[in-house]
Amino acid sequence: GAEDAKKLIRALVDRADGKIGIIAGGGVTVQNVRSIMEETGVSEAHGTAGRVTIKSKMAYRPDPPLFMGGEKWNTSEVEFSKKAISARRVFEYVSEMKSASAPRRK
Q1: How far apart are alpha carbons 80 and 45 in whole angstroms?
Q2: How far apart are CA 94 and CA 74, in angstroms?
Q3: How many other CB atoms are found less than 10 A from the CB of residue 79?
Q4: Torsion over CA: 59, 64, 69, 73 (sign)
């Protein structure tokens, strides 16, 4: 689980000893990025900080839907939406990263 992953990342950071950078990723959010950085010692993190889903304003929606791609896994909800980046959410994510205590070294 998450605690085991944090221990592994901490061990990798210690072993790297500043020679290479270790980046935390996978499940990193604005809610947990600060604690992940403080508990593992990483100075960088990769996460889905600002991704939001915007529903399409397109009025014409035939039944059955005419998929524009990905027919095997798309749904009409997915087909009529798009992914975008929220500057506000990215700002919150970066602010949390900056507020983390300096990475610890052994």
Answers
A1: 31
A2: 32
A3: 17
A4: positive
Q: Going residue by residue through the chain, which has 106 residues, state the pLDDT in tens, using 9 for 90 and above.
A: 889 999 999 999 999 999 999 999 988 999 999 999 999 999 999 987 778 888 888 888 888 777 776 656 677 777 788 888 889 999 999 999 999 986 655 5
Which stretch of DSSP H or E encloses residue 24?
Answer: strand 23-25
CA 15 to chain centre: 25
What predicted TM-score, i.e. pTM, was given to this entire model? 0.72
CA distance 40 to 22: 10
CB atoms under 10 Å from CB of 64, counted, come to 6
DSSP codes of every residue in 30-96: TTTHHHHHHHH--SEEE---SEEEEE-------SS---SS-TTT--HHHHTEEEEE-HHHHHHHHHH
SS3 of residue 5 by DSSP: helix
